[in-house]
Amino acid sequence: MNKVLVRLENISKKYNDKYVIKNLSLDVYEGEFLTLLGSSGCGKTTILRMISGLEHVTEGKIYIDDVDVTEVDPTKREVNTIFQNFALFPHMNTWDNISFGLRMKKIPSEEIEKRVKKVIKLVKLEGFEDRLPSQLSGGQQQRVAIARGIVMNPKVLLLDESLCSLDLKLKRKMQLELKKIQKQSGITFIYVTHDQDEALTMSDRIVIIEKGQIEQNDTPQNIYRNPKTVFAADFIGESNIIPSIIKEVLEDSIKVITNEDKIPFIFSKYESDKKNDKINLLIRPENIKLSKNELKNSIKGVVKDVVYDGSVTKLFIDTEGDLNLKVNTNGNIDIKEEEEIYLKLDEEFVVPIRGKQNEK
Amino acid sequence: MKSNNKVFKYIFLSPVVIYSIILILLPLIYILFLSFCKSDSYGGVIYNFTLSNYLTIINTTYIKILLKSSLIGILTTFICICISYPFALILREKKEEVRNLMTKLVMIPFLTNSLIRTYGWIVLLRKNGVINNTLLGTNIITKPLELMYNNFGIIIGMTYTLLPFMILPVCSAVFKIDNNIIEAARDLGAKPLQIFKNIIIPETISGVFNGSLMVFMPAIGYFFISDILGGGKVMIIGNLIKNQFLTARNWPLGSAISIFLIIVTFLLVRVYQKTGGKLDDLGGM
Amino acid sequence: MKNKTLKNIFIALVFIFLFLPIIILVIYSFNTSKMNIIFEGFTFEWYKTMLTNTDLLEAFANTLIIAITSTIASTIIGTIGAVGLYKYNFPFKGLINKLIYIPIVIPEIVLGISLLSIYTLMKLELGMPTLILSHIAFSIPFVIVSVRSNLSPLITTYEEAAQDLGANPLNTFFKVTLPAIMPGVISGATLSFTLSLDDVVISYFTAGPGSNTLPLKIYSMIKTGITPDVNALSTIMLLVTTAIITVSAIYQSRNIAEGGKS
């Protein structure tokens, strides 16, 4: 693993005596694209602002490159931010916006010229140097904002929901481009968003934040496959959460049954597992197999709703044992509402979640 | 229905059209006309075309008064800017309710007549006034200060009377600046003074021009302030025009000076519009 | 935090500067001494004297009459004018739209002497009528600008909806347009009332010998010496106008709050 570039050590943030962030620790590695993912008001933007220095830390320490910057003024931190609404200076053209930070630092003009030209090329804004922000499209404004940050050669670039004001198509395009710019520049990006798609597409690592605390911190694949909490499972991708009970604790495995249901699942055992503990089972809608005939270990259900969504058909099925399950199939299957159907939940796709119980 | 609408069109438009022609356009045209006439020695007007009034302004002692009055106006405007910027920037950091209350409070002194307020300054500034008495009483000074009947008194009076006209547009411009922009500048390493110079001034320049227009023009015209606090010793353009109309009864000359003021006003309005200012924001209190 | 204290001190100083003369006037209205020099003792005497000073009261009454009549007239003309200029097109509309700004931007003294000249040309005798006419003349543009800030394409849509539902133009104006622009009308009226009370310059040129307004009366008294009953009257004026402004501000903020709900 690369070296740690940003270290948050037990940081807390209080507003009016209320903790927004409590005792949070996080390491960010050099060169990675890290996403802080969470719903609005979860504290993710506050974390970002504390790293940039625009917000004070109530308790704890922040290190950048092994230097304690907790009390360092934002102007002196080698960190730059791309703001949610881009915050371009309206009276300055593209060139003046991008060169602003360098000019403030009184860098020699030949060097400014060289560096600004380089980033303008990187973000593909050649020919737009003289335009005012109001004469640029949303995507171009976004690029100016990124260039303005990158030109400073920051150790870390912080991006605060930087794509959310763009329309869907442009957003998709900019996601890929942002990732490319990050790779080419080699700068560490910390990206804040509430949009799981963005997080999945761009990140090397996702940190899910909820109520000012880290819910899970892992690669996108791992979070998707093995969410540690119901919240994480729900936040990343679509999910069916089945509340269940540990029926038996064996030597190195546990037997779990769902409500009244006869199908047992066997999982490897955790030390803390006890008989009659509640446990949640996650199965992704695309991993449920459907059949018109009864199969071994399948459960019977009635289709309540069919929604066509382009390439997939989404089914909402009530099954025996009082479960409401979402199932995504490819468009081939011909199913109507109120039709009876058999569902097969393969053990390999079912993930036990021991974290917080029945949060919803 | 159609003719009905036409009737309403006339009802809605005729008052404002008649008003703007009779009470704005006509008087101005008449003043322009007068400025090219001669006056006789009895205060009457001789309808003979002449440029002599304009030549009088440029050639004689009048130009000195114009320059001096402009200097007082510029100084007043400058002082108002120097007070308004910090005032607005400090209030910007406060909560919105506090801000609104403060900007409303600025308006309160306006609810008394400006003459009465100017009189209040006499009570404060004169030789045996409140300020001198306090300073003498606490032995800070031994001789009363000359605080009025001079340029100082006029500038105090003008600044006092016109300050709100600067504070309000500057505040509204400063409050409008997106906080993110200032944070972005800080984030990019700009120090407070650099932020002021590179972000705040360019963003608020039209507000400042708005204020300057509303301060400078009255500051060269409010003859009653120079009368009262200058003790009649200092003449500003306002006094000059007043004298031509009421004392010397040389209306053509007074009109020529007024036309000169109108031209200056129009030029300043053009500059204000060039900086992105809107006419509807002028004089909005 | 020292910085913060300094900032608060600055704000306080600005307000002291703005309020000092008024506070002094109010204090001296309770002073037993006749000269506005040293505060000798507390009395209500001047408020009684004021009531017997017929000259002063007449000037005050004139000021109020002018302020009230000119506010009513300029609010009506300004409001329908703003709506008319917004809705209808006609030749020279551009010119009229520009003319309206002139009283706002040109120095008051220029407006004052030009009105004086035109009254003389028309052989109008200077007095209360010319005073009121002049106050109407400089107030209308402020009302128009204020009302205009409330006019938007949305209002045209409302009007069209009302007419579509069968309302005649008169009903449409009073039931739909006017309520929608009411905040602008109220603030325009308030502004024109305060401008009228505050005015010295234009009244100075258009009053004529017979009529006297409070500012002109005080102007002439300054040369001979002002008695504390003027302070007393000013104090009362200050209270009354503050009350009017507060009521109008409350009305407006309530209006905004209600607008936000719907």
The end-to-end span of chain A amounts to 36 Å
Going by helix content, strand content and strand pairing, the class of chain C is mainly alpha
Give the chain pair forming the largest contact, with residue counts. Answer: B-C, 86 and 87 residues
What structural class do the secondary elements of chain A suggest? Answer: alpha+beta
So how many helices of chain A? Answer: 8
Write the CATH homologous superfamily of chain C. MetI-like
- SSE string of chain A, helices as H and strands as E: EEEHEEEHHHEHEHEEHHEEEEEEEEEE
Strand content of chain C: under 5%
Report the top-level CATH class of the largest domain in chain A.
Alpha Beta
Kindly give the count of domains of chain A: 2
Topology (elements, then pairings):
The complex is a heterotrimer of chains A (360), B (285) and C (262).
Chain A: E1 4-15, E2 18-29, E3 33-37, H1 44-52, E4 59-64, E5 67-68, E6 79-82, H2 94-104, H3 109-122, H4 138-150, E7 156-160, H5 168-185, E8 188-193, H6 196-202, E9 205-210, E10 213-218, H7 220-225, H8 230-235, E11 240-249, E12 253-258, E13 264-268, E14 278-283, E15 288-291, E16 298-309, E17 312-319, E18 323-330, E19 340-345, E20 351-353
Chain B: H1 2-35, E1 38-39, E2 45-46, H2 52-59, H3 62-92, H4 96-107, H5 114-125, H6 130-137, H7 151-176, H8 179-187, H9 192-221, H10 223-229, H11 237-247, H12 251-274
Antiparallel strand pairs in B: 1-2
Helix pairs in contact in B: 1-12, 2-12, 3-7, 3-9, 5-10, 7-9, 7-10, 8-9, 9-12, 10-11, 11-12
Chain C: H1 2-28, H2 45-52, H3 54-87, H4 93-99, H5 102-105, H6 108-121, H7 128-148, H8 153-164, H9 169-198, H10 201-206, H11 214-224, H12 228-261
Entry summary:
The complex is a heterotrimer of chains A (360), B (285) and C (262). Chain B has 285 residues and is an all-alpha fold.
